[in-house]
Design goal:
Blueprint lengths: L1 H8 L12 H9 L47 H12 L1
């Protein structure tokens, strides 16, 4: 998704750091060493002096979520959770 957004804007970013943890990304931003694209939920972390701006994307909500579990999982909460996720995604 991000590569598509950059290509559409004619932008070719130069990556110096690659981190996968949102807290690490925001720490680099807070230190003035980076800009980051993070999920909207990251704005709830309330990092001082870090500004969040919404990005327009097509489709509007492009994130895919997947659920995985072991076939031999005997946890009684699994089936209700599977049903809830299926209902929410529908």
């Amino acid at each position: 998704m991000l590569i598509g957004l950059f290509d559409a804007a004619g932008v070719s970013p130069h990556y110096v750091q690659h981190v996968t943890q949102i807290h690490s990304m925001l720490g680099l931003v807070h230190a003035g060493l980076a800009a980051a694209i993070v999920p909207e939920s990251a704005s709830g972390l309330h990092m001082n002096d870090v500004q969040f701006r919404r990005l327009a994307t097509e489709p509007e909500k492009p994130v895919e979520l997947h659920m995985a579990w072991r076939r031999d999982n005997s946890n009684p909460a699994l089936e209700p959770m599977r049903r809830l996720c299926a209902e929410t995604a529908a």
